[in-house]
Amino acid sequence: MTEEQLEELVTSLINQLTLAEKIGFLSTKQSGVSRLQIGDYEVGGEAAHGVVVREGTPTTSFSIPLGLSQTWNPELLKEVGNVIGTEARILYNQSGKRSWLTLWAPTIDMERDPRWGRNEEAYGEDPYLTGRLSVGLIKGMQGEGPYVKMVAAPKHFFGNNNEIGREDQSNTIHPRIKHEYYLKAFKPAFVEGRAQSMMTAYNGVNGIPCMQIEEINDIVKGAWQMDGFVVSDGGALTLNVEAYKYHGRFAEALADSLKHGVDCFVDEKELVEEAAWLAYRQGLISEEDVTEAVRRILRVRARMGQFSPSPYDQVDETLLAGQTHGELSQQVALEQVVLLKNQHLPLNSQARILVTGPLANRLPRDWYGGISPYGKTIYQGLRDEGLEQVLLVDSDSQGYFKLADGRYLSIKNGQLIASEDKSLFTLERWGAGSYLIKDSDSSRYLRYTDNASFNLHQSEVYDWFIKEKWLSQDEITWQTWDGQEITVLADGQVVAGKGPGTELIFECHYQGIQEAAAISETVDQTIIVVGNHPLINGKEQEDRPSMALPEYQQELIRQVMKKGGEVLLVIVGSYPFELGELANIPTIIFSAHGGQELGSAISQIIYGRVAPTGKLSQTWYQEEGLLPEISEYDISRTGMTYQYAQSNVLYPFGYGLTFGELGLKSLSSDQERWQEGEAIDIELVLENTAGHPITETVQLYLKVEGEDKLRRPLKSLVGFRKVTVAPYSELKIRLVVEAEAAHYWDVAWNRWVFPSGKGIISAGFSSETVRETTLSLEGRIRQGRPLSSLRDPANFDEYHQIALTVNKFKEKGVLLEAGGRVEYFAVEAVKGDEMMIELEAVELTELVVSWGQHRQSQQVSGPSSIIWQAPMTGKETFSLTSNQPVFIKTMKGG
User: Fold this and answer.
1) Which part of the chain is the Fibronectin type III-like domain (predicted)?
2) What is the CB neighbour count within 10 angstroms for residue 873?
């Protein structure tokens, strides 16, 4: 069928549905309508780096999205998306076509702060890079044409970059940074990728929960013309009432969300449908509101081929987690590895190697990872190279837990007890007082159970709540994962939450650090593999407590280095780390977690079989203590990301070494002037003087020096390309930069504007560029803004100590905190012009209205309004300042 025929089919179905049947589509568990041959269907599932089946069926596992982003290769991500789509279609067929085609991926939140617990899930800190990569993945997932292989659902729209408080707090994001940074990352997914679904975020933006913000209708469905359906995040309807308390009843919350563009609710089916019926009966929504949502849902299901034959119906089921897909997983793993420093690679294949560290022989699974058909650790990868001279030393400690009364902890019938006998345990130290304890004999972890006891569980730690985690600050007194004191009773029961904590002294029998340090003296090279556990100290619902490597891992590195041998540090992680003195280690590799071929990729790079080509998608900062609060979303003021960071950078955005070095011989453009609507051509010449091919990613950045005093990025990525240059040769490449790259959001006129000023185009192999050229930008010179244009107080140019939020009537405005100020540049007024300011003050407050050097002070309290009158004709900065909190609701000038 054509697009038009599919739409006619949807209209025909809609016209035959009753209201009750329509409401049956509003939750993710959608009821079928047998008389119309519409089957039951369940929306949802995950596909961050492969289709996630958490129990049972293996699927192909790629590197986590952080790793995908480090490939800087949109075409490779399109292949990854194609595999995800194929495996989703296989599972869909196997399910009787009841689920698996509407998965929630990719995550394209801006990672402006590496302390975010879910850092592993997205594509870095730059909106342009994220846009290019996400378009590649989405096109691969969905395919081309009126039918789709599966449905991509970018998430979480928008401003979602902290876990603590995400369910009941709002983030202040002013208009310029909203459009130029946070929304810019999402736009390509819909305009170019034609993503058929989208998930909103839990958090609020400017006082309003994201499931009820106007940007869903106005921008995503309006300006970007997304014609698929929008879902809320999991349980968001419940949280809207019970946690955020934005609405007092589910009917109100659902009605508000439905009218603002959410079509499908990820909550209990009964809750959603009861709320919808109540909202309808109370006149909060109409049948037309429900029909619009259902039309979007059925439109997408029609494109999936649920109501007519699809070209994607037939798929080879042997491809699921098969060899072909595994080969692509290896390619991705290779391309995402970032070489941070190098003095030793590639290693001599005859060298005696020691491999140690907590991640040397582990592949811990992240929550958004499925079950791989196999998994190759770094140690296994090195051994698979056929090198017998690779030794593995366990860096964890083993020992016994002793009580003050002389008894020991032991395992009896799979349960933890205290007795005269003692069991040998392995203690894994993951930092910030977090531990895992496993029985050394069975390699099964101790897990806190619902009956307050501890049993041996699985050999893998994997769950939403990590009940295997033990907490301690001194390794003497211990708590469960959720902070309950662990107590040993007189009868030997080990329980939690039933009394004061019992001292448990760990008597070390095997010291992994000392063993590794001793053996390191007998080998040619020691490879230490460190990093984070993806389910501990940084994951969904938990921001990172520290950016440093766990202290135990740092001590392992220090002790090995004291022996004087050569050390290769391999960091496997979900995010950037603060390295401190460890940055002085001569050779450092960074790899993201995940992927069944991680070990193979690392080993091939270590021995020089393949050269590393990965590039960082996030800035690595030197000192965590110099970073702002994680709740500060205005990167232009906090100096976060490469766009605004002027210091405190260890490794810059876009950085990554390879074997050999290309030269950037020249950068030029045949244009000296740049105007709105024009694209500029940039020509670069790369030179390889080495005797082997070199693959590099050349990067193009733009800095705008406008004829105004607006704060702008130091530079912004506007183009890149991954290329291979043959030995002893030059390669000429051409990159095209669209005029849109120079646009800024003009708050005075609420629109995108091409500026006037100077444009500096620079290029290099990271954001620390090496060559540049300058163009004249011949756009709009920002003149004045008439007093009459000041309507929305949020459209300021500068501010201090404010929050964008809503009042108790859900009216938007600017909250000036004590000492708060907003400024509006170049406001034009004629003598006698008046401005009425509507406001609310909790207590008696002095509000100062300034226009240039003229100040008017007025005492205000409660809901009120003041009138300001221009004392002269001119153009000056208009500002409001208060000594106590005051909510500015509207401004009406004229």
Assistant:
1) 696-767
2) 11
Q: List all residues 6 or more positions away from 754 whose beta carbon is below 8 Å from its beta carbon.
A: 675, 676, 739, 742, 743, 777, 779, 780
Taking residues 114-138, report their average pLDDT: 99
Candidates 210, 184, 203, 177; CA nearest to 126 is 184
CA distance 655 to 649: 11
For 336-358, give one letter per residue: b (16+ CB within 10 A) or e: bbbbbbbebbebeeeeebbbbbb
How far apart CA 509 and CA 117 sit, in angstroms, is: 34
The yes-or-no verdict on residue 389 having pLDDT over 90 is no
DSSP string, 523-562: SSEEEEEEE--TTSSSBTTB--S-SBPPHHHHHHHHHHHH
Give the pairing type, strands 505-510 and 397-402: antiparallel
What domains sit in the chain, N to C, each tagged with a CATH number?
Answer: 3-312 (3.20.20.300), 336-394+512-616 (3.40.50.1700), 397-510 (2.80.10.50), 660-778 (2.60.40.10), 785-893 (2.60.120.260)
Residue pair 570/378 in contact (Cβ under 8 Å)? The answer is yes
- Do residues 840 and 887 touch, judged by C-beta distance below 8 A? yes
In order of 26, 344, 603, 700, the CA distances from 848 in angstroms are 49, 64, 65, 45
Q: Which residues contact 623 (CB under 8 A, 6 or more apart)?
A: 578, 648
Q: How confident is the model at residue 388 (pLDDT cuts 50, 70, 90)?
A: confident
pLDDT digit string (tens) for 806-865? 999 999 999 999 999 999 999 999 999 999 999 999 899 999 999 999 999 999 999 999
Are the C-beta atoms of 836 and 892 separated by less than 8 Å?
A: yes
Nearest to 145 by CA among 342, 384, 312: 312
Q: How many CA atoms lie within 13 A of 533 on its CB side?
A: 25
Distance CA 3, CA 674 (A): 39
Other C-beta atoms within 10 Å of 668: how many? 13
Whether 117 and 540 have beta carbons less than 8 Å apart is answered as: yes
8 A C-beta contact, residue 347 and residue 612: no
Residue given tokens 């989703």 in the structure block: 88
Mean pLDDT over 75-103 rounds to: 98
Q: What are the phi and psi torsion angles at 675 (to 5°)?
A: -120, 160
Please give the Cα distance from 51 to 333 (Å, whole number).
17
User: Is residue 685 a contact partner of residue 730, using CB atoms and an 8 Å limit?
Assistant: yes
Tokens 């007890």 locate to: 417
Length of the chain: 894
Eight-class DSSP state of 216? I
Rounded-to-integer distance, Cα 200 and Cα 879, Å: 34
Query: Could you tell me the end-to-end alpha-carbon distance of the chain, in angstroms, rounded to an integer?
Result: 56
Q: Which two tokens stand for residue 465?
A: 């709540």
d(CA 173, CA 208): 11
Distance CA 567, CA 888 (A): 59
Residues contacting residue 531 through CB under 8 Å, at least 6 positions apart = 358, 359, 549, 553, 571, 572, 573, 577, 593
pLDDT attached to residue 451? 85
The residue-averaged pLDDT of 176-192 equals 98
> 175 vs 123, 638, 790, CA distance in Å?
23, 16, 14
Q: Which amino acid is at 492?
A: G
AA letter at 71:
T
DSSP class of 698: E
Q: Which helix H or strand E contains 880, and what residues bound it?
A: strand 874-882
Q: What is the CA radius of gyration of the chain?
A: 29
- What would the two tokens of residue 814 be? 């600017």
Please tell me the distance from the alpha carbon of residue 593 to that of residue 63, in angstroms, as a whole number.
Answer: 6
Q: With a cut of 80, say whether residue 502 has pLDDT above it.
A: yes
Contact between residue 893 and residue 788 where contact means Cβ atoms under 8 Å apart: yes
Mean pLDDT of 420-430: 97
**Does residue 877 contact residue 825 with C-beta atoms inside 8 Å?**
yes
User: What is the average per-residue pLDDT within 475-500?
Assistant: 93
